[in-house]
Write a structure and sequence with these properties.
There is one protein chain. The protein is α+β, with helices and mostly antiparallel strands. 30% of the residues lie in helices and 21% in strands. Strands 1, 10, 11, 12, 13, 14, 15, 16, 17, 18 and 19 form an eleven-stranded mixed sheet that branches. It is globular and about 70 Å long. 46% of the residues are buried.
């Protein structure tokens, strides 16, 4: 084996020498990558955004103290160089990276902050702003002492966050919070310049200024977002060359994925997320390794509106829906076998995933009987709201046909993504499509965020589900520091949730990014395409 390996290495080296293998090429500066999105990003204010479409842009403009590794298994330093926690897990101290500056320009003009250096005081102000301006994600760190006082207006400063000196930031927690470090990697917990936020007020959403590798240039609603290179970005590559390599990054909005794929094949798009499922086989043939593919820690589901009848108190009706859906058949026929039929809430890549979870197998006869017991012997009619997307429409129509066989008439209402989120915040739809892709790799992010009774609406619990015993378990899980005990708590909570069925549990996600042959350095992180770093991407073709 050694001899064969040595021969292979020698041949490979010669190939590189004489054939000009791309892997040996040096990164090239210049060019603008055009990236496809199916919808207009609802928010470009990082403290207000909650969706992955917005996050795609925000991850280029703003930065966190820490970030997730591409495989999702590690927390890496970013704007914080290092950190330490006290023995009791309540005090976290971060040493900030020196030489990080806010964007000096945006939209072709000087910013209000002037490109000054970021300090610990900026971090304190930014995190306090999340509470002052009622960020829907501020509660992710409600474990920090003083959160309640800030939220109810009894304090003007967040007592649990202190700027010890220019480059030292300290958090004091009310109680140990096991996923704290992971939460800080979520894209809302970024630093923003006070001067620009105060200059624009609520319109900061349309004039974002951060520290990231790109600066904001323009936003043509429902068409594209244009970013330009941050010439003063702090990060360098291994050879000391300053990132980013690209001159710019454009997010192009094309709602129809089939149309987007045709534009990609013409070379009008450089990168495309979510190649239509029916085209993945062709994409593999066309692109080879340039089609980046991976399972994604996310769950696709239909939620019931638990704030009103008939779903609020009719558990048999909710069970009937779950037994009525043939997930495997839909995955095979509609999703090209790319997704994974779901038993519950936590995807297989999530810590705490329970392979022995008791879910819902396809059983139309049982579904019929439950429908009768639920008080609907002659059938049932309701409306499912989905956001516009080829995949969502195809899945909805397939489920609609399966339910019709059992006497359930499922009307499908298709709306824009922004409208979808707004109506869910107000608990308007009787049923709705949603998917949850992990923000931080911990079961807390799925269970507590999506289904705790304190998180109705924009915080994540769109079903308005409430179950005190389950709430208590999820609260215990947040405090428990023993990993084994934590997972046991979350597994118990998940089984109770699945039994209660606030959702129709459908699929675990598959994710892909199509990249042109001239695009180099692109990766598909475990968290999904929206987290793909762009600072180290470069193009051989301009």
């Amino acid at each position: 084996m050694r001899r064969i390996t040595a021969l292979f290495v020698m041949m490979f080296a010669l190939c590189i020498l004489f054939c000009g293998v791309a892997a040996a090429a040096e990164p090239v500066y210049g060019g603008v990558v055009r990236w496809h999105e199916a919808a207009n990003p609802p928010k470009l204010d990082p403290h207000m955004a909650t969706d992955t479409t917005s996050a795609r842009v925000l991850n280029c403009l703003f930065e966190n103290l820490v970030v997730n590794s591409n495989d999702g298994q590690k927390i890496l330093p970013w704007l914080a160089e290092s950190w330490k926690a006290s023995a009791d897990g309540k005090v976290w101290t971060f040493k900030l990276r020196k030489g990080v500056h806010f964007h000096k320009t945006a939209e072709g003009k000087p910013t209000a902050n002037g490109g000054r250096e970021v300090t610990a005081a900026d971090w304190k102000w930014s995190l306090e702003r999340m509470i002052r301006d009622k960020s829907p994600r501020a509660y992710f760190i409600d474990c920090v002492a003083g959160y309640d006082e800030m939220t109810n207006g009894k304090a003007k400063e967040w007592a649990g966050i202190k700027a010890i000196d220019k480059y030292t930031l300290q958090f004091t927690l009310k109680e140990p919070f096991a996923p704290f470090l992971s939460v800080l990697a979520y894209n809302s917990f970024v630093v923003t310049p006070k001067e620009d936020v105060e200059k624009w007020g609520k319109d900061f959403n349309f004039h974002p200024v951060g520290t990231g590798p790109f600066v904001f240039d323009s936003w043509k609603q429902d068409q594209k977002v244009t970013l330009r290179k941050n010439e003063n970005y702090w990060k360098k590559d291994a050879k000391g060359h300053r990132f980013p390599y690209l001159d710019g990054f454009e997010v192009v909005v094309i709602p129809d994925a089939t149309v987007a794929w045709e534009e990609f094949k013409k070379g009008n798009l450089d990168m495309m997320r979510d190649v239509p499922d029916r085209l993945v086989v062709d994409a593999r043939k066309m692109l080879g390794k340039k089609l980046l593919e991976a399972p994604q820690p996310g769950t696709y589901y239909y939620g019931f509106n638990m704030s009103k009848e008939p779903f609020k108190s009719n558990i048999k009706l909710r069970h009937a829906f779950n037994y009525a859906v043939d997930r495997k058949r839909i995955n095979d026929l509609v999703l090209e076998g790319l997704f994974f039929p779901a038993k519950g809430i936590l995807p297989p890549s999530m810590p705490g995933y329970n392979k022995n979870l008791k879910g819902y197998e396809y059983n139309p006869e049982k579904a019929k009987q439950l429908l009768k017991e639920a008080g609907f012997p002659k059938g049932f009619e309701t409306t499912l709201q989905v956001n516009q997307n080829v995949r969502h429409k195809a899945i909805a129509e397939a489920i609609q046909a399966q339910l019709a066989e059992l006497g359930i008439k499922l009307n499908i209402k298709i709306v824009d993504w922004g409208v979808h989120l707004d109506t869910l915040d107000r608990a308007e739809p009787d049923m709705y499509r949603m998917g949850w892709v992990v923000d931080y790799l911990d079961p807390d992010n799925f269970l507590y965020v999506n289904l705790h009774s304190s998180n109705f609406g924009a915080k994540g619990n769109y079903s308005h589900y409430k179950n005190p015993p389950v709430d208590k378990l999820m609260e215990q899980g947040r405090l428990e520091t023993d990993p084994k005990k934590r997972m046991e708590i979350y597994q118990k909570a998940e089984q109770m949730l699945v039994d209660d069925a606030p959702w129709v549990f459908l699929f675990y996600y598959y994710n892909n990014i199509a990249t042109q042959k001239w695009v180099e350095g692109a990766t598909l992180p475990a968290f999904g395409d929206y987290m793909a770093p762009m600072h180290n991407v470069w193009m051989t073709k301009k």
